[in-house]
Amino acid sequence: MTDPNAAARPVQAVVLAGGQGSRLRPYTDDRPKPMVEIPGTGTPIIGHQLSWLAEEGVTDVVISCGHLADVLEKWLATADLPVNVKTVIETEPLGRGGGLKYAAARLPHPEQPWYATNGDIWTRFSLRDMADFHAERDAVATLALARPRIPWGAVKTDGFGHITDFIEAPPTTYEINAGVYVFAPGFSELLPERGDHERTTFPHLARERRLAGFPIPHGAYWRAIDTAKDLTEAAKELAALGRRETT
């Protein structure tokens, strides 16, 4: 049976992979952050992302490179990639908004919508569902929203100030920008030449009610890999997920 939404879903994506990754040192001393491997996975973050994008119907990806771009390009040249990949290199830092705009100019289908993701995100959920959510709301941009666990234990108290429970690393009560996006064809025209779109473009679209938020489904895995601790925690979580899936 033909899926009536399939034609409107993106088949192209941008991956932002140009950051310094300074909080992940020494892992990023000799490679860009997306080339860091989570222990036990056997693949760098960028390899995981490209596989995920391919599974969700993407055929073409533009990777915006910066820090140690030659290391990433060398890996891309030898890897068995599931999508067509182009790289663009920022000769000077453009910021996330400028980087998106610069990379989007190389997308093969400028008249069609596109996905984007930060290069340090390890996640798995249905981008097809997110694209349908985006189309149903006629949004210019849609952000995936995550509810990560806070890194500390929390306490519950009653109305008299008595502690009633301890909760280890509970999910935050706020949703955050998960670093995965769906954009309408003309979105790149709204991006700054340099700077951060989260401080310029997104607030403008939010005021006009043209910005949507797609909650990542309950149970789907999501983590931003920012620090060495994130690598350790991700390895534990993914190993646990693997055990549950095989039992």
Q: What's the short story on this structure?
A:
This is NDP-sugar pyrophosphorylase family protein. The chain is an alpha/beta fold and 247 residues long. It is built from six helices and eleven strands.
Structure write-up:
This is NDP-sugar pyrophosphorylase family protein. The chain is α/β, with parallel strands linked by helices and 247 residues long. It is 27% helix and 24% strand. It contains six helices and eleven strands.
List its traits.
NDP-sugar pyrophosphorylase family protein; seven-stranded mixed β-sheet; alpha/beta; 247 residues; 6 helices; two-stranded antiparallel ribbon; single chain; NTP_transferase_dom; Nucleotide-diphossugar_trans
The percentage helix is 25-40%
| Rounded Rg | 19 Å
The helix/strand class is alpha/beta
Biggest sheet: strands side by side, in what order? 3-2-1-4-9-6-10
Oligomer: single chain
List the helices and strands and how they pair.
Elements: E1 12-17, H1 45-55, E2 60-65, H2 69-78, E3 84-89, H3 95-104, E4 114-118, E5 121-124, H4 127-136, E6 141-146, E7 154-157, E8 163-167, E9 176-183, H5 201-207, E10 211-215, E11 221-224, H6 228-245
Parallel strand pairs: 1-2, 1-4, 2-3, 6-10
Antiparallel strand pairs: 4-9, 5-11, 6-9, 7-8
Protein name: NDP-sugar pyrophosphorylase family protein
Domain Nucleotidyl transferase: 13-239
InterPro entries: Mannose-1P_guanyltransferase, NTP_transferase_dom, Nucleotide-diphossugar_trans
